[in-house]
Design a protein that fits this description.
2031 residues, 109 helices, single chain, mainly alpha
Length: 2031
């Protein structure tokens, strides 16, 4: 009892693990009660038992274990955290419970397993149970099987994954234990209930007796599908529904409906794949080629046996398939053909989608082989081709099938049609789109009229099957020309067809109309994705008409209330019948006089004819009879023009009023065309043609008319016909026009001798251009340049115009076409996408000879290269090719893994060519040729990978992404553990996937490899994987991806899950399907009533919005978008019907607009901030705004903006509406200020969207509004919050780099105002981010603005610290762009003016060159206040101040200079601005400057200035004299500047002249002297100005060596080598100095590169000893020249050099190749150098190049590399600059003559909007902010570590003080809590000391008037305690003199006067240049000249405003002690 009492007192959890079993039993009982009692599933109590739960179920005592199991079950059922224990507990249950004899224990164990499944842990439980099946104890195995069976029975096959269960099931049937076999049998029966026959294949291997028993059991099962009876926690809605059904008696229909979408299990998925390639006989490939048929048969039988495996493992089957194809195609033995066909069928069935790669190779061969008559061969071929079809899709093989549809052999035609019929059965409405029907139906219609009955029957069957699948309505438009008999046969065939998956096949075609749409939908889900969106996407891409027809499809469906009215068709009737019918409607006299010889009688007859026609009713009018009467003799040969006019007029009347058929039209068209050119009758003829076109459709009429007129030779008729057609197109619209039919005739017209015909043809092309856009030009690229120019001029006229509204042709269109057909018609005729289909494509399969393929695969790389060259030539010559390219894919695939990387790159280039040439049909080659491109992404060489990525992008551009994601190919690529491949592929997917609306389900296969990439050893791979994670999640969903982690190892699962959580937070929103398309689909399926209701409700705005949404997806350019939207109403008949509602709506809107525009919501803004912080909405942070951001903003605005205002702001087509809306907001700002403030975040966000558009009108209006807004907010004392600022300021700063001056000026003004409503210190980091932009204007402007902030607000604005900020700013002093350099120097100068010499410490180390630039700037422009005239300066400042404060004049601030200001004025303007700011700051004491010397205040304290002149005059006279003193750090420039310059220059000139000497030794000596100068940095600048001269001498010497010295055998080659070495050494030294290298001009660089490349190619150099070394040095030099020279000059030089080399026929091809390699290198670095390049010059050079080498001539060159080089250069420039590239053609005299402009426009059009690259800053900033917040504790920990260490304690305290100043609310308590009292007081004391120290220094400021900046560096002892050097004292003294206006200005003025009176040019002024400099006296010779000029002007201006005083010329005292005393005296007097 004593023992009991001990454990009785223990808590429950301790009892549960007590060593006494009774204690444990008691613990379990109490735990069970506790678990049932706890109501909160998230109670902390549950956590105590997490670690104990396994012990509950594995207790060694059977009694306790039983109770433990009950407690565990209760815990799992109620605890939220129970899922974490699933693995260990189920494992314990399997090993320790399932082997118990007690049934209750097993039952509880099984219940625990099922409960874990219920709480979403099914996978873990299933894995543990399957592991249990391997246990040696049969009891455990039996219970595991039983538990699996129960789980499947209750949860169903959706929750229980059957594949692993089925995999282990056959093994259980082999068990020796009967109990196991019986349980396995029960499990097999249960599985069969769920998956039916899919279970049969995996169990085929078990004992036949067992299989028979199973079959018997399976037969007994009910046919109804089982239902899930137990549900997961996440399925509670389903559970409630199920219980409801049970209560209602189990509604079967509902149940069926619910279960219908349940995925059917594919038996194939349950099978294990078998690897067969390794099992092929070793001599298979020899035997298959053997002469004896028996050996070939043996080889095939071996393959057949292996191919019978139902599932095959993927591998490279290319060789095997080729061997089988050869047998099928060429083997004479039909038995072997049959055998090979069976093998192919087996492979296709076993590999499924993976066989799709080879489908394109085998299908054509099989189709050709159908000529065999033997049934067994035909049957085998049918089985093979049917199996192949299931591995690919109809689109991929359509070309091959269509190719044999008109074969001469009827068997082939028959079998092709039958194959299509069988294939159609596997299609749905989605996978058999109209585009496919459009391709196949014409071929079937030909076969329907074939002479062979079997061919006709096959065609009927195929058409019938198509009709059954897609419905009669979809097929009928293609069968319009068939007679009723044939149509009935097709319908009869359709009735007979039974589709797989449909129970009743005989419902008839009519019944199919509604049923298939609904019933076929579920199975069509997957295939729909394969053809839905991609089909639409291309239509949207090229813009214009295709979309415009879509909304019109709904209105056009209005006519569908009545039965369909088909086109009026009539047969031709005889003349006798015509006369009879005419006589019934025409007067007798009229009939008699029709052919009278007297023209007056004929005229009278015509008048009667006309009256009769006018009075006739449509139903009575025999049109054909009447027109035949008109055509009766004399008919169209009528000689009298009056009669003829009447006749033509009557034709028009008949066509308009009657049922005018094409048969009737044929009668009149000849006459109309004949008279169209007649002066008198032409007008009437055109009217007749128009009427005919209205009756019979314009496309048909136009085709007939054009073919007729060009059969004639009359140029007048031809010209007028083309003019009529151009006008008709405008009137009727472009729908249905057969462009291809016209092109040849238009080309004929363009080549006509008659100018009128040519002009008419060009006018017609202009009209067609309106509808088709740029692709139209492709048809005419082969025309002569002069003609092409005329065409381009016409196209240019049409640019920017939208197609006119069609007003004819709607009458018939509305009645004859339903919505779907209208859509189809638009696609047929209106769209640019069709242009790609219309392009004449060449079939190159016959040119890809076997010899060429063999060459490509040859062992010798040179022959392989030759083969590839031939292939490239064939493709280049063909331009546009058909997809059939023979055996080329396999040959090229082999070259992609060639050991020679040059050939790999060449192959990739060819594949790019193929992509462009083949167009969208490239899709069928994705699997066999596209996927190997991805493999190349794993190559070790960067250039190869880059080429592969370029190729891949080119392919994807043509094919879209869907085909790449289908199947396992992509996942197989990711499976390769190649870091390069993985990072490239993941980066590519992350780029492409966000733009997709849907993705194939196969993307899920990539997820396991994505997870493995997250843990890859390579950091880049991990980074790319993390970037791709949210993108995958966007498409697959978080749940699916989390579920996929279940298969990871436990160690990997946790980190991957954590990354998934992170990715979930940043997951982008998925693109919604475009509303326009959804709407169209609904209207089609909904039939007439739906269409009608849609019409009645429709308002114009939503329609336009739909268009806009569609267009936004594919057309990034807003202007294009606006054009496109203009015409939606024009399509068909919607125009008139829409006008009334529009006016009504606008009237209503006007009424609504009187109310408030902003709706005040309490806490609306706070709620939005909270949502964004909680990541409930997207954070406003993007590079370019995606649709989801726009939608989110619309949603947020809808609650607080007036509806009409929101509609206007987001108006799709009319930017003027947006401008007006902004105007209204501006007008009502004062009235609705509270509302404006409450919606300010949304207003600013809307403005950011406008910043990404190119419409300058809207942009200027936005800036105007902002200039009103911020001052208003400032007056109201409103301050922006972080949320508003971070979502607006980064995007505003983007516009500071705008190319337009007016925009930049406004943005700078707004930034100034912004600092009044948002702290300048917080604006500062945004501007710092702006300095990292690639846009040089933006960098410069941001730096200027930073200077303003520092000037106005002091150093406190510099965030995070002044030192860090200044270092980043100082980096830009070395920028390539001059304006950026100047801006950076000005900003540092502003800092210098604030804190003096301390600036040098802040900026850190600079290069000597940059430091000298800075010091020069400081010396020249450091702040001065002239004492002689303080008042004018002050008055000027007072005048400027109000301007500065006024928002509309931003240019008065510091460094805000207008763009057009002359450079010479800058110094004076800057000084004025600084003076103004200094005075203004003095008047604004509110600016905080606690921690710095207010030097400006000291400087401008004019109250004591009057004391100082006395001091100077009476005590310091001698100090005013110029002191010439040598300084240790800096030397003055000699006063004899010009003499020195002249002597140096003449010496250099002399030495350079010797470089070109014919004597080698003289040249070497001269080069050695120059080398000495170049190697010393302080002397090298002396070469400035002589660079061109030196380079000319150098390449003259190179030419001399090449032509003379090398040919002279008497000369020692070692001397020549030495001379070469000297030249190259000099060049390397020169081109290592960028400042000198940039002086080289274009012409000199061209000659230099010519000399260097010639030297590299000189074979004689290799014969010299160390020749190879020399060539390597030249190579290095060339690279250096390319990098260091002025980028514009070198690029220009290379282009001219390339042009010259290609022009010269005698030149070496290697020379051109090397020049192009240099160009490629330059192109590669363009992203970094683009800002420093003069694009105008480069484009001029390209233009000149293209004039010499037009496109055609360039393509005729032996190599296509020049063409590609030029294209790549232009493409890269376009990519980097976007549409702005077109603004850089100013130097081209006649742009219209230039091929370049057209090319650039094409590239720009297709490359989309480039502005996205500008906004990365915002993202980085946001991330930095987040990171800084996340690491606060880390920063403080680091600071306290420093305080705690002896060495760094002072530094730590300083950092802590600064940290507290920055974050006043920082909580230090957690860090001080655990430290000693002594440490805490030490820290507090240290902080107080620092505070008092800094405040003390701050207090010195106001009490003193002038403190020399160099003397008081804040926070440091002067010069760190070192002894002051004399130079420093002098420097300080000089500054004091400057500050008090005591510079010898009067002396300088006097010197100026002397200069004016004296002829000695600039010597007196030279003494003014004695400014400190780092370099030697010869430094910066060139820059000094410009300084002289500036100094002269500045002193001239000063002369006008200062009085003269006597000049002091005496020399200064050298007594240093005296100097020190004087300085101290000045300081004490100042204090």
């Amino acid at each position: 009892m004593g023992d009991d009492s001990e454990w009785m007192k223990l808590p429950i959890d301790q009892k549960c693990e007590h060593k006494v079993w009774k204690a444990r039993l008691n613990g379990y009982e109490e735990a069970l009660k506790l678990f049932k009692r706890i109501e909160d599933e998230k109670s902390p109590e549950w956590g105590k038992y997490l670690g104990l739960l396994k012990k509950f179920v594995t207790d060694s005592n059977a009694v306790a274990q039983l109770k433990g199991l009950e407690a565990a079950l209760a815990y799992i059922e109620n605890a939220h955290v129970a899922g974490k224990t699933s693995g260990e507990v189920v494992s314990g249950v399997v090993s320790k419970v399932f082997n118990q004899p007690k049934a209750r224990a097993k039952e509880l164990g099984s219940d625990i397993c099922l409960m874990y499944m219920e709480i979403e842990r099914a996978e873990v439980v299933q894995d543990e149970l399957i592991k249990g099946l391997d246990n040696k104890n049969p009891k455990i195995v039996v219970t595991c099987i039983e538990t699996l069976r129960k789980a499947l029975s209750e949860f169903g096959s959706k929750i229980i994954t059957l594949k692993p269960v089925v995999k282990v099931l056959p093994k259980q049937f082999e068990s020796r234990e009967k109990a196991v076999r019986d349980e396995a049998k029960l499990l097999a029966v249960e599985i069969y209930k769920w998956i039916r026959d899919a279970l049969r294949p995996p169990l085929q291997g078990i004992n036949s007796v067992q299989l028979k028993e199973l079959e018997e059991e399976w037969v007994k099962l009910p046919t109804a599908a089982p239902k899930q009876s137990r549900f997961l926690r996440s399925q509670q809605a389903l559970k409630a529904k199920f219980e409801q059904q049970q209560a209602a008696g189990g509604d079967e229909a509902d149940g069926d409906k619910d279960d219908e979408p349940a995925p059917q299990v594919d038996p194939y998925e349950l099978l294990e794949a078998v690897e067969i390639l390794s099992k092929l006989p070793k001599d298979f490939y020899d035997k298959i080629e053997a002469k004896k048929w028996q050996e070939r048969k043996e080889a095939l039988e071996a393959v057949e046996t292996l191919a019978k495996n139902p599932k095959l493992e993927n591998g490279d089957f290319g060789d095997l398939v080729r061997a089988l194809r050869k047998v099928i195609g060429k083997d004479a033995n039909v038995m072997l053909v049959t055998l090979a066909a069976k093998c192919v069928a087996g492979l296709a069935a076993g590999l499924r989608k993976k066989f799709g790669t080879y489908a394109g190779h085998v299908v054509p061969t099989i189709l050709e082989k159908f000529k065999e008559k033997k049934p067994q061969v035909v049957q085998a071929l049918q089985e093979a081709i049917d199996a192949i079809f299931l591995t690919t899709n109809l689109q991929n093989i359509s070309e091959d099938v269509l190719g044999v549809m008109d074969n001469k052999n009827p068997s082939i035609k028959q079998q092709a049609s039958l194959f299509l019929a069988r294939s159609f059965r596997h299609c749905t409405q989605a996978t058999l789109p109209k585009s496919m029907l459009k391709a196949f139906c014409p071929a079937f219609l030909k076969q329907v009229n074939d002479s062979a009955p079997e061919v006709r029957d096959a065609a009927y069957e195929a058409l019938g099957t198509a009709m059954k699948v897609v419905g009669e309505k979809a097929v009928n438009p293609f069968l319009a020309d068939l007679d009723k008999l044939k149509l009935d046969k097709i319908k009869e065939s359709a009735d007979k067809v039974e589709l797989p998956g449909k129970k009743g096949g005989g419902g008839g075609v009519g019944a199919e109309k509604k049923a298939p749409a609904a019933k076929a939908a579920p199975p069509a889900v997957a295939p729909a994705r394969s053809s839905g969106p991609p089909k639409k996407a291309p239509a949207a891409k090229l813009g214009g008409p295709p979309k415009k027809g879509k909304p019109a499809s709904a209105p056009s469906a209005k006519g569908k209330k009545c039965p369909e009215t088909k086109e009026f068709v009539e047969t031709e009737i005889s003349i006798e019948v015509c006369e009879e019918r005419s006589a019934t409607v025409l007067p007798a006299s009229c009939m008699q006089l029709l052919d009278s010889a007297n023209w007056k009688e004929r005229l009278a007859s015509m008048e009667e004819f006309q009256k009769a026609v006018e009075q006739m009713d449509k139903s009575e009018m025999p049109c054909q009879a009447l027109v035949r009467m008109l055509a009766k003799k004399p008919g169209w040969k009528e000689t009298n023009f009056q009669v003829m006019q009447m006749k033509l007029h009557i034709v028009g009347l008949i066509a308009q009023k009657g049922s005018f058929s094409k048969t009737s039209a044929f009668v009149v068209l000849d006459g109309l065309v004949d008279k169209i050119g007649d002066v008198k009758c032409g007008g009437k003829a055109k009217e007749g043609l128009t009427a005919t076109a209205e009756a019979c459709s314009l496309p048909w009429t136009a085709e007939q008319v054009v073919s007729m007129v060009f059969a004639q030779k009359n140029p007048k008729n031809q010209a007028e016909t083309l003019n009529w057609l151009a006008n008709a197109m405008k009137e009727f619209g472009f729908a249905g026009i057969n462009v291809k039919g016209f092109i040849n005739n238009v080309k004929t017209a363009l080549g006509a001798t008659n100018p009128a015909v040519r002009t008419a043809a060009i006018t017609l092309l202009g009209v067609m251009y309106l509808y088709m856009g740029a692709p139209l030009r492709m048809f005419f690229e082969d025309e002569k340049p002069a003609l092409l120019k005329q065409i381009d001029d016409e196209f240019e006229k049409m640019q920017g115009q939208s197609p006119p509204t069609a007003f004819r042709g709607a009458r018939k269109g509305g009645a004859e076409e339903d919505g779907e057909e209208a859509d189809e018609q638009e696609e047929d005729g209106g769209g640019a996408p069709d242009v790609m289909d219309l392009l004449p494509r060449t079939d190159i399969s016959d040119k890809i000879t076997q010899d060429m393929v063999d060459k490509v695969g040859d062992k010798n790389w040179k022959i392989r290269k030759e083969g590839l060259d031939e292939v490239a030539a064939v493709i280049s010559e063909a331009k546009f090719i058909q997809p059939s390219i023979g055996e080329l894919p396999m040959a090229l695939k082999g070259r992609l893994n060639d050991s020679n990387k040059i050939l790999v790159q060449q192959t990739l280039t060819i594949l790019q060519q193929i992509a462009v040439a083949m167009g969208p049909a490239l899709k069928q080659h994705v699997k066999n040729l596209g996927m190997p491109i991805i493999t190349v992404l794993g190559d070790g060489k960067t250039n190869v990978r880059a080429a592969a990525m370029t190729t891949l992008q080119a392919w994807v551009e043509q094919t879209g992404m869907k085909d790449w994601l289908e199947g396992e190919d992509l996942s197989e690529e990711l499976k390769r553990e190649n870091p390069f491949l993985r990072q490239e592929v993941l980066g590519w997917l992350a780029e492409k996937l966000p733009a997709m609306r849907t993705v194939p389900s196969d993307l899920m296969l990539c997820v396991p490899y994505l997870y493995s990439c997250l843990e890859d050893r390579n950091g880049d791979v991990r980074k790319k994987a993390q970037d791709a994670l949210p993108i995958f999640m966007m498409h697959l969903g978080y749940e699916k991806m989390l579920k996929a982690t279940g298969k990871l190892k436990p160690a990997s699962k946790e980190p991957v899950s954590a990354l998934l959580e992170k990715a979930r937070a940043v997951m982008p929103a998925k693109l919604a399907p475009p509303p326009g398309k959804a709407g169209a689909a609904k209207s089609v399926s909904g039939g007439a009533p739906a269409a009608k209701s849609a019409l009645s409700k429709a308002k114009p705005k939503p329609v336009i919005d739909d268009y806009d949404d569609d267009d936004d997806d594919d057309e990034p350019e807003p202007e294009t978008k606006i054009k496109k939207v203009v015409k939606p109403g024009a399509a068909k008949k919607g125009v008139l019907g829409k006008k009334a509602p529009v006016t009504k709506a606008t009237a209503k809107d006007e009424e609504d607009r009187s109310g408030v525009i902003f709706i005040l919501l309490p806490n609306g803004k706070e709620q939005r901030i909270k949502e964004e912080k909680g990541l409930k909405v997207l954070k406003w942070n993007f590079n370019t705004p995606r649709d989801e951001y726009v939608d989110q903003l619309k949603t947020q605005m809808s609650t607080c903006f007036a509806r009409w205002l929101q509609d206007e702001l987001f108006h799709a087509s009319d930017f003027q509406r947006q401008v007006k809306a902004i105007g209204v907001m501006g007008e009502r700002m004062e009235d609705e200020l509270e509302g404006t403030v409450s919606c300010l975040d949304l207003i600013l966000k809307w403005f950011t969207l406008r910043f990404f558009e190119t419409n300058s009108t809207v942009l200027m209006k936005v800036l105007e509004y902002l200039k009103l807004l911020f001052p208003t907010l400032s007056r109201e004392n409103y301050h922006l919050n972080e949320y508003e600022a971070s979502s607006f300021i980064p995007y505003l700063i983007l516009k500071v780099g705008e190319s337009k001056d007016v925009v930049r000026k406004d943005v700078r003004a707004i930034l100034t105002m912004l600092c009044k409503v948002y702290p300048a210190s917080k604006v500062f980091p945004f501007l710092m981010d702006g300095t990292k932009s690639k846009n040089s204007k933006q960098r410069a402007e941001c730096l200027e603005e930073l200077g303003c902030l520092i000037e106005n607000y002091g150093m406190n604005v510099c965030q995070p610290t002044p030192a860090k900020s200044m270092k980043e700013i100082a980096v830009h002093i070395g920028d390539r762009d001059n304006s950026v350099r100047n801006a950076a120097l000005n900003t540092v100068l502003a800092v210098y003016n604030v804190c003096g010499d301390q600036v040098y410490k802040l900026i850190g180390n600079l290069s000597e060159k940059e430091m000298s630039m800075l010091e020069e700037r400081v010396k020249r422009f450091a702040k001065k206040t002239p004492a002689a005239a303080p008042q004018p300066a002050k008055q000027a400042a007072e005048r400027e101040r109000p301007q500065r404060e006024h928002p509309s004049n931003p240019n008065a601030t510091f460094m805000r200079k207008p763009a057009q200001q002359p450079q010479e004025d800058v110094p004076n303007k800057l000084n004025q601005a600084r003076a103004q700011n200094a005075v203004r700051e003095h008047s604004h004491p509110s600016i905080p400057k606690e921690f710095q010397l207010d030097l400006d205040m000291i400087e401008n304290d004019h109250t004591r200035v009057s004391e100082l002149p006395d001091l100077v005059q009476h005590k310091l006279d001698e100090l005013l004299e110029p002191i010439m003193m040598p300084e240790p750090k800096i030397r003055s420039v000699s006063p004899h500047f010009d003499d020195l310059h002249n002597s140096t220059a003449s010496t250099i000139n002399f030495v350079i002249s010797q470089v070109a000497s014919g004597d080698i030794n003289t040249s070497i000596q001269a080069l050695a002297q120059i080398d000495e100068v170049l190697r010393q940095e302080d002397k090298a600048e002396a070469m400035s100005g002589h660079i061109d001269q030196f380079l000319i001498a150098t390449f003259m010497q190179l030419r001399l060596i090449y032509n003379t010295h090398m040919a002279d055998d008497r000369l020692d080659k070692k001397d020549i080598f030495k001379l070469y070495s000297c030249i190259i050494g000099n060049m390397l030294s020169l081109f290592s100095m960028e400042s000198l290298a940039r002086e080289a001009s274009m012409g000199v660089l061209k000659d230099l590169m010519h000399g260097l490349i010639t030297l590299m190619l000189d074979a004689r150099v290799e014969d010299i000893e160390d020749g190879q070394q020399l060539i390597r040095s030249v190579n290095l030099l060339v690279v250096r020249v390319l990098e260091k020279s002025d980028q514009t000059n070198i690029l220009s030089a290379l282009l001219v050099l390339l042009q010259d080399s290609l022009t010269t026929s005698s030149g070496s091809p290697m020379f051109s190749e090397l020049v192009m390699k240099c160009l490629w290198r330059m192109i590669r670095f363009l992203p970094e150098t683009i800002n420093s390049i003069n694009l105008d010059r480069i484009l001029l050079d390209v233009h000149n190049f293209m004039k010499v080498f037009p496109k055609e001539k360039l393509k005729q060159l032996k190599s296509d590399v020049p063409h590609r080089t030029l294209k790549t250069l232009l493409h890269t420039l376009c990519k980097l600059t976007g549409a702005k590239i077109l603004d850089h053609m100013s130097m081209i005299e006649n742009k219209n003559d230039s091929e370049l402009e057209a090319h650039l426009r094409r590239v720009v059009k297709h490359s989309g909007n480039f502005s996205g690259m500008k906004s990365d800053r915002g993202t980085e900033k946001g991330q930095d902010d987040r990171m800084s917040k996340a690491k606060v504790s880390d920063i403080l920990s680091e600071i306290f570590k420093k305080i705690g260490s002896k060495e760094n304690t002072k530094e730590g305290l300083t950092e802590l003080y600064e940290y507290k100043q920055k974050y006043s609310d920082a909580d230090l308590e957690p860090f001080l809590r655990n430290t000693s009292q002594f440490f805490q007081s030490y820290v507090e004391r240290g902080l107080r000391m620092i505070e008092s120290e800094r405040e003390g220094k701050g207090r010195i400021q106001p009490s003193s008037t002038v403190i020399p900046q160099h003397g008081l560096d804040s926070g440091s002892v002067p010069l760190n305690g070192e002894e002051m050097k004399p130079a420093v004292y002098y420097e300080r003294l000089k500054i004091l003199r400057q500050r008090q206006g005591l510079e010898n200005n009067s002396r300088q003025a006097q010197l100026l006067q002397q200069e004016e009176g004296d002829s000695g040019p600039m010597r007196p002024i030279a003494s003014l240049l004695s400014k400190p400099s780092v370099a030697s006296s010869t430094d910066m010779l060139q820059s000094k000249l410009s300084q002289l000029k500036e100094s002269r002007e500045s002193h001239f201006q000063q002369e006008q405003s200062h009085s003269h005083s006597p000049t002091r010329c005496s020399s200064p005292s050298a007594n240093l002690d005296d100097l020190k005393k004087r300085l101290e005296r000045i300081k004490s007097n100042r204090q």
